[in-house]
Structure formats: C-alpha cells, structure tokens
Amino acid sequence: MNRIMIMTQSQIDKLIAENVEKAVHEQKENDEYDLLKKQTDLAILANQINPHFLYNTLECICSMALINGDRSVADITLALSQYFRYSISGREGIVTLKEELDNLKNYISIQQFRFPKKFKIHFGPMESLQEIGIPKLSLQPLVENAIIHGLKDTTLGGEIHIEAKKMGNILEICVSDNGTGMNLEKLDRLRESIRDEGRFGTEGGSHSGIGLRNVNKRIKLYYGLPFGITVDSCEGIGTEVWLSLPVQTGMGV
C-alpha cells in the first residue's frame, strides 16, 4: 500500500526557506564570479594600452646587452619581458602548471637579480603534474609573500621550497620558507585576513594577506569552498603556504 507523506506547515516553510537560501547563495556566487571577471578584464585593459611597445623596448635592450657582452643584463631583461607578456596578456582563466611554473621562474630571476644573495629557490619534482590546470597567476603571489614577508629580515641564506603533489583527485602545492615565521597571534590574523570573503583587492587588512586572500578567493570561486589556501607558521622556523585545488586537465573556464 502506497504511503502518502503529509507535511506540516512548519515543514513546508522550512523547505521553502532552505530552497530560497540555496538559490540566494548560488546567485551570490555567480555575482561574485562575474565581478571578479569584470575586475580582471578591466585590469587587463588597463595594462594593454600598448604592450607591444613594452615588449619591443625590452627585447631591444636585451639585444643591445648581448651585443655589448653583458649577459646578465640580457638575461634579466628577457625574463622581465616574458614575465610582463604572460601577466598582462589577454588570456585568462585556467593555464597549465607548466605555464605557471615558467612564469614563476621568470619572476624569481627578477627578484634574485634585485637581491643576489637573499635567497635560493628549490623546486621539488613536478614532471608528472605539468599538464594539470591551475588558475593563472596563482603561484607568483605565494612566492612573493615568502620573499617580501617570510624573508623580510633575511639578507642572505634564505631558502624557499616549492613542491607539488597529487593526492587522489586533489593537487596540493606548498611554498615554504625558512624565515622568521609568526607567532600564533600574527598567524591567526593572517588566516582571518585570507578568509575574509567580504573583501577582494587591496583595501584594508594586513598587507601580507592581500595577495594570498585574492588567490584564495579566486580558487574558491573557480572550484568551491573545500579548496583554497591554508597557512602554517612557527616563529623562528618559517612559514608554509598550501594551495589545494581539484585535478583537472585541459584549459578554459
């Protein structure tokens, strides 16, 4: 005999409220993604006034440096040209881990040219992960944070390790440094700044959390709440920043 489920008015009201809340949450996520895309488009347009002028000038400087036998200037100029070309190109969304790492190496070359003895970089094995998709410009802010904040009191002997591993269907990337680290109070403030979903951009908050917060926000908008950035730190030992995202191959969002 078929049973007919009879719902009370309070159950009906609760079901309606849950559906409305779910719809509002989904609409909010869509609105946030649209806003992020518009902000990205505006940033790209602002930086595309005449990018070829910048590229051509840097490549000209590179050629002149080679002619004059100054290999170090040629190398850093080429790295700067490639870094800008990647950063302000019209392409957005998902790129491969290989593309992100190539851009990251250019950024590191620029920073090591500025601070020759401040730090060394160590890359873990990532050959099997090269074609996994990752949001563009997700890694550079993590390394920038390590250089500027993690190693801010270091003039030489700094170490930054960049490692990635695949755990089932999740890609985890870790950027760690041997800097001064943070006490629990500072770490909690940084974590709160990164989690602050009410802000996107550079307004307010801890300056050291701006880049990390923006990356965290983008990861969550692309993939959902389980993914993003986590930070661990120990005063006097160093800091680890972890980025987690689902394993995907292919590009485009």
TrEMBL record:
SUPFAM superfamilies: ATPase domain of HSP90 chaperone/DNA topoisomerase II/histidine kinase. The keyword Signal does not apply. Keywords: Kinase, Transferase, Two-component regulatory system. GO terms for molecular function: phosphorelay sensor kinase activity. One of its GO terms (cellular component) is membrane. Pfam families: HATPase_c, His_kinase. The keyword Iron does not apply. PANTHER family: SENSOR HISTIDINE KINASE YPDA (PTHR34220:SF7). This is Histidine kinase domain-containing protein.
